[in-house]
Amino acid sequence: MSDDIRNVRTALSAITEHWQPHRLASINDYDVKVVKLRGEFVWHTHPDTDELFMVLDGELTIQLRDRDVVLEPDDVFVVPRGVEHCPKADGEVHALLLEPQGTVNTGDAGGDMTSTLRELT
Fold first, then answer.
1. How do 51-57 and 76-79 pair as beta strands?
2. What's the pLDDT tens digit per position in 89-103?
3. Which CATH superfamily is domain 8-104 in?
């Protein structure tokens, strides 16, 4: 990756669809993604990787089978590999994700909400 500066807020302002992550930057074999979330996603797991969520704006609930984790602005939570989870946002949430390159947003669930990683322009 070059030394280009990316602004998180500017990147988020360019996103028009929910649940469609966009690559902000890459570091080693990981992607730093920004995404807007609203509503309930799908229950899924990532069998081979952890997934980091950082909430920038709004309130995000990460539903786990044994509890709910509520994240507010500036909170970070790591969903461990293999743990089934379902993100849910009653209002719009702006978030940053950190995942290995090639990680599919719906993990092992697939389906209509599966997104191809988009590049910010």
1. antiparallel
2. 999 999 999 999 988
3. Jelly Rolls (2.60.120.10)
